[in-house]
Design brief:
Two copies of one chain form a homodimer. Chain A is of the alpha/beta class. The first copy, chain A, has a single domain, classed as Rossmann fold, CATH 3.40.50. The first copy, chain A, is 36% helix and 14% strand. The radius of gyration of chain A is 18 Å and the shape is globular. The termini of chain A are far apart. Chains A and B meet through helix 4, helix 5 and helix 7 of A and helix 4, helix 5 and helix 7 of B.
Amino acid sequence: GRKVLIVYAHQEPKSLNGSLKRVAVEELSKQGCSVTVSDLYAMQFEPRATRNDIVGCLHNSEEFNYGVETWEAYKRGGLSGDLIEEQKKVQEADLLIFQFPLYWFSMPAIMKGWMDRVLVQGFAHEFPKCYDSGLLKNKLALFSFTTGGSKEMYAKGGISGDIRYLLWPMQHGIMHFCGVKVLAPHICFAPEYVSEEKRKEMLIAWAQRLKTLWKEEPINCSPEWYFK
Amino acid sequence: GRKVLIVYAHQEPKSLNGSLKRVAVEELSKQGCSVTVSDLYAMQFEPRATRNDIVGCLHNSEEFNYGVETWEAYKRGGLSGDLIEEQKKVQEADLLIFQFPLYWFSMPAIMKGWMDRVLVQGFAHEFPKCYDSGLLKNKLALFSFTTGGSKEMYAKGGISGDIRYLLWPMQHGIMHFCGVKVLAPHICFAPEYVSEEKRKEMLIAWAQRLKTLWKEEPINCSPEWYFK
């Protein structure tokens, strides 16, 4: 059975994001996958990258460098418990699903903090092991999110620009950098401004897509996909 | 005298980011500007968008919607104290400088949390008052940051793509959306991999730029600037 980690960032279980998460757990479990959820708000996940992420002495206590310190701590098993826990989940997963409402053309800070703190050097990448040779290769990722703006606003030539423009930092800058292959994003546009009926259709469409997810080919994560 | 708010996100005062912040405070003060710094890590700024940001009763306690609740709370003066404090600083500022190390093609989570929580509807935008008619028009913003990757990696055709690609969500999606005009970014590439001498030159170049900053024209914040 395949293993899936859903990293989920919404405060309200009754939200559409909450329902999308639930649908994914149900559908993937039905397929025989083993599904783990990191419910970031419920966990009160810490987004701030600080000295607290390193247990014990620092490599250089004169001048704190987060990247160097977490790299060194990772190598000696000295990262804080919450990070080790998340890294274990990532390590075991074949697929990472990120489920969130788009905040300011990006993920909410609590999820950005997950990226900042979990994907440390040594674990997810280690120069020159990045991009196609990143340490998390052979894994898949999928960004599933809701927007405030409409599909028209996020069209090419629309006021907010092609939605793909804002996927570049998340899909290429983070996932591809770590060697993870990226499936097409799953986007629910402006659920707050549509009928209950339409929102139900959004949930059905997501369940439907998940049925054949494992047959999908990753996108070609190059500038052409994003900016052409 | 003009007013400047520096939103600063680095854990270590001795870092290059710390020095860049100090240089800006010194140079702008010398010019007669009044400079305020929000030192996010020192403030232990909360990045998580939660129910705690609303004082008193919720507008809809059945189903928590962060965007709606903070909008309503803003209108009745019911946002948490730390947000009111930051909004006051933004309101008074002519120029916002964001000083940070690039984390995963974006700002550190603690700074993303500042965007998520401070720039609430009603204060920074209120549909259809967004983009050129955003509520923070007549203000300027400048993103000043350091990178891990080299200038070559962030060149057009480089493995990390043109650095402008990753500026889209921050400059257009956040600042332009709120009506803020954006000055050209100030980027120090890979300071950890250059000599102490070169790092000193980076500080001098920043101080130099600040001397004539008020004569600069904002960039043309359209897809052409980012993706051409």
